[in-house]
């Protein structure tokens, strides 16, 4: 199967959609000096090829009183508990990200909470999941990098070579 090729226009479309997924195709077309139909066809092709998977909305959790972020590493009794632990984590809405990992932790999670007391309650809930031996928590003081564009630009630069 041939590798799907992106060109400079595709790259610019992705750049604008990463910045704001709700940017109208007509606005993108005006900036790129092409028709809105061209943008629509290219976005549809990138969706069909799996380059674009949906679109996202950025929520300001601080404004919703969920500014406390912590990362929790889980030590699991043995690998047979992994799927049950993941299922239990999925039922905790404050667990916003979870990764199966190698190394020190079997699972690594990101939680969002209202404050330290709320975070403690979430951590204790995670500690009580059958199969979790213990957890190790790190508190985020401040998110200093959250940049989807730099990697996309690096990938595109590699892709052109």
Structural class: alpha+beta
Main sheet, how many strands, which sense, barrel? 4 strands, antiparallel
- Quaternary state, please? single chain
Mean pLDDT: 92
What name does the CATH topology of the largest domain carry? Alpha-Beta Plaits
Strand order of the biggest β-sheet: 2-3-1-4
Radius of gyration: 20 Å
What is the tally of helical segments?
6
State the CATH class of the largest domain: Alpha Beta
| C-alpha geometry | elongated
Range of strand content: 15-25%
The count of DSSP E runs of length 2 or more, i.e. the number of strands, is: 4
Number of domain modules: 2
Order of helices and strands: HHHEHEEHEH
* Helix-residue proportion: 40-55%
CATH superfamily of the largest domain: Lrp/AsnC effector binding domain/regulation of amino acid metabolism (RAM) domain
> pLDDT under 50 segments (min length 5)?
none
